[in-house]
Amino acid sequence: MEKNWVRIFTSADFYRAEMVKQVLTEHHIETVLMNKQDSSHRTFGDIEVYIHQENFSNAIEIMILNQL
Fold it and tell me: Each residue of 41-50: pLDDT tens digit?
């Protein structure tokens, strides 16, 4: 992964991570999902949402306003 990416959200539920990604994308914040779940046992590992470091404060504000 490139430099200056930070993790903004982590969840064991794919749909929650996808919701965060979609809301941030709607506000023109580039996001990347990283699936770290075990391929055979979905109960192990997390889905992580990453954004560029310069968008961090704006993304936090968006997530708070959208109750994510």
Answer: 666 789 999 9
